[in-house]
Structures are given as C-alpha cells and as structure tokens.
Amino acid sequence: MAKNSVYNKDAADFAVSFIECLCHTKGTWAGKPFDLIDWQEKIIRDVFGILKPDGYRQFNTAYAEIPKKQGKSELAAAISSAQVKTGRSTLRNA
C-alpha cells in the first residue's frame, strides 16, 4: 500500500458482497452462488478497498497467475460486473 493510501473497509465490503450475490454461469458450478475463496477475496479487497488520498482506487490493474480451470474467467467477469454496477472503475469512491 502506498504511503498516503488508506483502506476503506466499506468499499471493500461492498465489492465482496456484490460479487457474492452473483452466480456462476458455466461448468460444474453453473447456477451456484459465487462464494469467494480466501485468495480471491484478498484480491477484491485490495483492488476495491485501498484508496489514494483523492478518493480514487490505488490499483487499476490486478495480475493473478493460477493454473487452468481455477475460475479466473469467472472472477474477471465478476470484477467487471462490480465495476460496471458501482461505477467505480473510473469514478471516485465516495
């Protein structure tokens, strides 16, 4: 975390709650709730919860390297949905 950045628990909680309201769309998990596992939740909380002093998110990009068939595409789609829904991909977190 950058020196002047702060962790906004409300912003992180909102993103996690929104994503966990979604359902998987394909494969074995199709139709089942998106229940974030620890490493996924950590990424979401860091990306959406760490804010710069001006209120914008510190991180605009996240990189996760994991094996095939481990839910990367579903997680990316969930993150994109959260950004579209909240408008927080380009707007200030208030």
Please sum up the structure shown.
The chain is mainly α and 94 residues long. The protein contains three helices and two strands, in the order βααβα. The chain has one domain (6-86).
Can you walk me through this structure?
The chain has helices spanning 9-20, 38-49, 72-86, and strands spanning 6-7, 50-51. By secondary structure, the protein is mainly alpha-helical.
The residue fraction in helices comes out at 40-55%
Strand order of the largest sheet: 1-2
How big a fraction of the residues is strand? under 5%
The tally of domains stands at 1
Helix and strand pattern: EHHEH
Assembly annotation:
single chain
**Main β-sheet description:** 2 strands, antiparallel
Number of strands: 2
- DSSP summary: helix tally: 3
Keywords:
disordered C terminus; 94 residues; globular; 3 helices; two-stranded antiparallel sheet
Topology:
Layout: E1 6-7, H1 9-20, H2 38-49, E2 50-51, H3 72-86
Antiparallel strand pairs: 1-2
Helix pairs in contact: 1-2
